[in-house]
TrEMBL record:
Name of the coding gene: moaD
Protein name in the entry: Molybdopterin synthase sulfur carrier subunit
Lineage: Bacteria, Bacillati, Bacillota, Bacilli, Bacillales
InterPro entries linked: Beta-grasp_dom_sf, MOCS2A, Mopterin_synth/thiamin_S_b, ThiS/MoaD-like
One Pfam family matching this protein: ThiS
Keyword Nucleotide-binding: yes
Family statement drawn from the similarity comment of this UniProt entry: Belongs to the MoaD family.
Keyword terms: Nucleotide-binding
Amino acid sequence: MRVLYFAELKEILNQSSEEIDIKKEMTVQEFEAHLFNQHPEIDDKKFQIAVNEEFVRKDDIIQPQDTVALIPPVSGG
């Protein structure tokens, strides 16, 4: 699974993307738990998740071959 990081998350993790070895499908909520276990430094950050360029809900399913993007809120005015 390819995971893309943007804005603040990209800076905190010092990477714009990574490959995560996931063997089975999981819900978005399960993915978040896995991600926070791997990267506890972003556990308190706010972001939306998009899978294959579509925003998803916590109970949607992610497949091992999907591309997941973590997108923090956009600030500005």
